[in-house]
Amino acid sequence: MRIVSGMRPTGKLHLGHYFGVIRNWVRLQKEHEAFFFIADWHALTTAYKDTKNLKSHIRELMIDWLALGLDPQKSTLFIQSKVKEHTELHLVFSMITPKSWLEWNPTYKDMKYNLLKLQDLELQFRGALRDHVKEFLGSIPYRIEDFERLEEHLLEAIAEAMVEAVFEGEIDKGILKELNVSKRDFYETDTYGFLGYPVLQAADILIYKGEGVPVGEDQLPHIELTREIARRFNHLYGDTFPEPQALLTETPKVPGTDGRKMSKSYGNAIFFSDSSQEVQQKIMKMFTDPQKLRKNDPGRPDICPVFAYHKLFTGDSQLVNQIKEDCSNGKLGCVDCKKIVFNSLEEFIAPFRTQRENLEKNTDTLMDIFHEGSEKAGEIASQTVGEVREALNI
Looking at CB atoms within 10 Å, which of 184, 283, 349, 356 has the fewest? Predict the structure, then answer.
């Protein structure tokens, strides 16, 4: 099976990236024909105003990929923008993709509202509107075939209109100050590229005639849209593209040092580039069970981020069970517990850190690997675009 997947260059990789994506890629490259690309065009989707660090982020991603086990002998590793055919196929697909498909994509609004921290505001409007929408639908003199679906459609549309009204100054202007978001922020997020990035994503996959795409559940709508675009092109111009399948894999959740999802933007991440001292400092400052204030207090390991690290990095299952028991009984304090985690985590990270340091000294080799990968990918992409041009009579 031909596997295709990419990652935006946003900086150095942390533990969450490894367990969420890279570990699975390393496994897949042993079993399938794999194409993995650095999605630098996609980086402009939300960060188009500030590109000064883009080149350094690409370089860091190259280093991390190779250090964490992606093998150029087993995978084709390349940079998206070095294969010009991606943008050409994106243009073709944008011509045949109905705008409604993109507007209905559930992750489009989710991403925008997440960027601007508007989820709570929209939920507040939806909650206030629900009874009124029910009453309105019950009063109209027409049969409603699917009440729940229409109700949700109206709630979403009205709530979005209410959010827009806030930014137009038609509703309490104080809300914007509370959100710390401006009208300009709201509308400058709505670029064509932001709306249409799933079309570029479809081009990324289909240009290599990818059959499988490793994704998380949140990306499933994008893969279905890619399948729809492939079907539409094939219907209009003849069979050209396969319909790729989503490859879902269970991944352990790696909490950040504050217990939230690990994220660079939260400042709670442990990076593979961190020194041993930096890792130790982060571990010793980790959040724990808020009810365990003293060493002898009984703890609740199942809600403690530190114990989640034990399950991932402390390889001895008997020791993990003993830690859980001693914490629950108040026999193990948080400081000693964190010291054990640090030793286990350092043993895990150290080989990757060493690999990273070696790669940083060999920039020329690094660039050669991705140059060769981009050339190989370009040959396949060029052949696909040739087929597309022939199908379009261009």
Answer: 184
